[in-house]
Specification:
two-stranded antiparallel sheet; binds iron/sulfur cluster; binds FE2/S2 (inorganic) cluster
Amino acid sequence: MATKTVTFEIRRQANPDAPAVWERFDLEMRPGMNVTSALMEIAANPVTADGKPTTPVTYDSNCLEEICGSCSMRINGKARMACSALVEHLDQPIKLEPLSKFPLVRDLQVDRSVLFENLKKVKAWIPIDGTYDLGAGPRILPQEQEMNYPLSNCISCTCCMEVCPQFNESTGYVGAATIAQVKLFNNHPTGKVLKAERLRALMGDGGIQECGYALNCVEACPKNLPLDTAISDIGRDAMVQKVKDVLLR
Ligand code: SF4
Ligand code: SF4
Ligand code: FES
């Protein structure tokens, strides 16, 4: 039986200041092949389609099952996870590019630490003193668990930020993922203690009012987080907090 070939065109850049070049690779199509496994094959034999030896392509990956959020890149122009992008479902040649809104490290690897800085700004954690046994935590109703569970599925992949027209240097907008985590931690009976601080962190420049509610983020999220309701609920809560702060001044 004739073997089928799959062709990749990959945008390469040795460092942030180096010129970008495209390299083409032909691989033998394998059942269940995904973009990450193809990149592994290229790393094992880094030779371009025209026979020129090159360097292995740099990219991030870890879990290989859409859980760690590290392998986001643009695949045929769309921000998505490389490990869950099945080659048989993609148009050829398959174009791979790094995310465009984050500082480039090399090839397909970018620095996504802005999301982690934003999560720190809104204190996206439950503040407990873990140095001694605190006993059982507060009870959470099943209805609340059902509401919170989808928000806890965020894998910090930043696809929602890559596709967001408002996430750019001029707005400094935090993006949908951070807002969703504010909702998650504000909903928690212990996390609630920082609710006002989190909401205040989302007011002002780069805060929730930068959102244009075009919902590109909802479409792009690989874990189907309810980003639309998170943005509207937190927008309302931030407004209420603002009024309270004015009245209590
Ligand atoms: S709704 Fe639009 S502007 Fe708001 S976070 Fe999502 S993509 Fe960005
Ligand atoms: S909200 Fe969705 S798209 Fe955004 S970082 Fe989390 S998992 Fe990724
Ligand atoms: S390697 Fe972890 S999400 Fe793709």
